Amino acid sequence: MYMNNEIVIKVGKLLDEVRNKKPLVHNITNYVTVNDCANILLALGASPIMADDIKEAADITKISSALVINIGTLNERTIESMIASGKKANELNLPVVFDPVGAGASEFRNATTKRILEEVKISVLRGNMSEIKFISGLKSTTKGVDASESDTNIGNDEGINVAKNLATKLNCTVAITGVTDIISDGNRVAILENGDKMLANVTGTGCMTSALVGGFCGVGSDYFIAAIGGIMSMGICGEIASENAGQIGIGSFHIAIIDAISNLNSEIISNMGKAQ
Amino acid sequence: MYMNNEIVIKVGKLLDEVRNKKPLVHNITNYVTVNDCANILLALGASPIMADDIKEAADITKISSALVINIGTLNERTIESMIASGKKANELNLPVVFDPVGAGASEFRNATTKRILEEVKISVLRGNMSEIKFISGLKSTTKGVDASESDTNIGNDEGINVAKNLATKLNCTVAITGVTDIISDGNRVAILENGDKMLANVTGTGCMTSALVGGFCGVGSDYFIAAIGGIMSMGICGEIASENAGQIGIGSFHIAIIDAISNLNSEIISNMGKAQ
Amino acid sequence: MYMNNEIVIKVGKLLDEVRNKKPLVHNITNYVTVNDCANILLALGASPIMADDIKEAADITKISSALVINIGTLNERTIESMIASGKKANELNLPVVFDPVGAGASEFRNATTKRILEEVKISVLRGNMSEIKFISGLKSTTKGVDASESDTNIGNDEGINVAKNLATKLNCTVAITGVTDIISDGNRVAILENGDKMLANVTGTGCMTSALVGGFCGVGSDYFIAAIGGIMSMGICGEIASENAGQIGIGSFHIAIIDAISNLNSEIISNMGKAQ
Question: Which of A252, A217, A249 is nearest to A125 (CA)?
Answer without folding.
Answer: A217
